[in-house]
């Protein structure tokens, strides 16, 4: 059964969970609609991606333009993200103690072993890369950058994260993934996820290969005052997953232990 993990929520002293601000949630949903490959979106596209009505989207985009979070491009009748979004991303990275500790160690391991090393966190049913150092000897067709999203269900990063969820959260995620992947081989995918979760519980890591000739391994990292992070290593290779596991399990787990050891303890 998946292990439980700490959920970070803002609770008012002496009260239960604060009532959500629906307008704020919808505004954030509009911003989340913009992803790599979709630099500009119109009201109809935003409405389709968010499930909001066009009138609601129109009202929200106007507010986001006024705050600088969006820019309107009249020639295209579409919006693009504003510069403050980049500033916020930089502030997030700069303020992460995890990245400050992990990044130099990740770079050193990637260079020494000529492998790729990445760090990611979960967001919905996807994983978002915080950092990636790529020193694999063989050139891969994939280029990973900070902020890039990858599917949780298919990847070692995502499956390692799933292994940290409490039973209720894990089962809810499985139901959501089953609905999303219905008719696309969900049965086999679920078996792979269950095997990966068991591997994390037994060995501390899991292995996956969702891209041609790319094998990745991942292990979850738990820190005080931070959400679960997931560390991975990967290689572009003709070797099978077993050979990669034999070669990279020790470097992965030693790096994970070193990062956790150097993270400041909260008293």
UniProtKB/TrEMBL annotation:
Residues 21-83 form the HTH iclR-type domain. Residues 77-267 form the IclR-ED domain. Pfam families: HTH_IclR, IclR_C. One of its GO terms (molecular function) is DNA-binding transcription factor activity. Keywords: DNA-binding, Transcription, Transcription regulation. InterPro entries: GAF-like_dom_sf, HTH_MetabolicPath_Reg, Tscrpt_reg_IclR_C, Tscrpt_reg_IclR_N, WH-like_DNA-bd_sf, WH_DNA-bd_sf. Residues 1-20 are annotated as: Disordered. PROSITE patterns: HTH_ICLR (PS51077), ICLR_ED (PS51078). The keyword ATP-binding does not apply. The keyword Transcription regulation applies. GO terms for biological process: negative regulation of DNA-templated transcription. PANTHER family: HELIX-TURN-HELIX TRANSCRIPTIONAL REGULATOR, ICLR FAMILY (PTHR30136), TRANSCRIPTIONAL REGULATORY PROTEIN (PTHR30136:SF33). This is IclR family transcriptional regulator. It comes from Cupriavidus necator (strain ATCC 17699 / DSM 428 / KCTC 22496 / NCIMB 10442 / H16 / Stanier 337). The lineage of its organism: Bacteria, Pseudomonadati, Pseudomonadota, Betaproteobacteria, Burkholderiales.
